[in-house]
Amino acid sequence: MKRILLVANKSWETEAIINALTLPHFSPDYKLMSPDILRNPWLLPQGTGKPRAEWFNYNNSHIELWCVQDVMEIANPTDPQLYSSSEIKKGNLFKIFNYDKNKPDLVLALGTADFGDVTQNNNGCLVIGSNVFIHNYHPKGENPKSKWDDPRFEQMLASSIEPNFFQLIDPTTMSYIESRLLKPFNNPSDSIQILCDPNYIALSSVNITNYVEFDTADVMGIQAIRDAGFKNTVASVETTHGIIRFGSDAKFAFVSGITDRLGHFNDDVNGRDKKGNVKTEAQNYAAAFNIGVYLASMLTKITLANIK
């Protein structure tokens, strides 16, 4: 039996993903709608090493849905920036990968992101790829809340995942998924669709705990990729896919829900409606929920043949 890990970053991302997986109008398989174990809402103590949901034998696979934020041990729980610490995330990942005696066969990193091309608006779209590049925004340890360092930073890590993983969704299933994707409130794309390419790169800018730094860090990270000689499309720009990738040598892919345009985090994620209401929750929820819509159909296609 294969072990599949679905690893999301924040609790609000995980909750939206579970909502999509367990709703009959968005999930095509009753077995997925009814996990064998469901720990949602999360009521266990912070730092507990248990997944949010488990399916014990789904298409001959043990599927675990995890939330990185759940497993993080926080010294000062009242400091919200510590929940974004790359150092703390990396230090607690062993709880996920060692939860079962069997090593994972497939790891999918899940989370919201911006799209790494300033000329494109893909807000609301899903991007799926397999390469990871980690850029250290504070390489001299300037952020006391996150000082993680690793010799694998500033280089591309490819995945051994088979190309047929990116061909699991046939045209009929693609239409089913895309007809159910939510449109985010602020500056949505003209076409809410799935963009899938094994050559896509996920950029993770690490050691950022203050969201104000995102726009600057994202541009610097993309420049680091270009300076390293890689011309692949940077389809996902966030903080945690790369941390998850470092947790295992298993076959890996990332699934990102796009919330904002490159350099427009404050405009798109923190944008307001005509009444002046901040629409952060609506923007984030739509993108995270769409990840669950994709997973609900993609997981029905997973078989032993897809993960050699």
Give a verbal description of the structure:
With 308 residues, the chain is α/β, with parallel strands linked by helices. The protein has one domain (2-301): Rossmann fold (3-Layer(aba) Sandwich), CATH 3.40.50.1580. Helix content is 26%, strand content 22%. It contains 10 helices and 12 strands. It has helices at 11-21, 30-33, 68-71, 86-92, 94-97, 171-178, 214-227, 241-245, 265-268, 280-298, and strands at 2-8, 37-38, 53-58, 61-67, 106-115, 126-129, 131-136, 156-157, 194-196, 201-206, 234-238, 251-261. The strands form 2 sheets. Strands 2-3-4-1-5-12-6-9 form an 8-stranded mixed beta sheet. Strands 8-7-10-11 form a 4-stranded mixed beta sheet. It is globular, with a radius of gyration of 18 Å.
SSE blueprint and pairings:
Blueprint: E1 2-8, H1 11-21, H2 30-33, E2 37-38, E3 53-58, E4 61-67, H3 68-71, H4 86-92, H5 94-97, E5 106-115, E6 126-129, E7 131-136, E8 156-157, H6 171-178, E9 194-196, E10 201-206, H7 214-227, E11 234-238, H8 241-245, E12 251-261, H9 265-268, H10 280-298
Parallel strand pairs: 1-4, 1-5, 5-12, 6-9, 7-10, 10-11
Antiparallel strand pairs: 2-3, 3-4, 6-12, 7-8
Summarize the biggest pleated sheet. Answer: 8 strands, mixed
- The helicity comes to 25-40%
Class from secondary-structure proportions: alpha/beta
Q: What does the oligomeric state look like here?
A: single chain
CATH superfamily annotation: Nucleoside phosphorylase domain
Q: What is the CATH T-level topology?
A: Rossmann fold
CATH class: Alpha Beta
Strand order of the largest sheet: 2-3-4-1-5-12-6-9
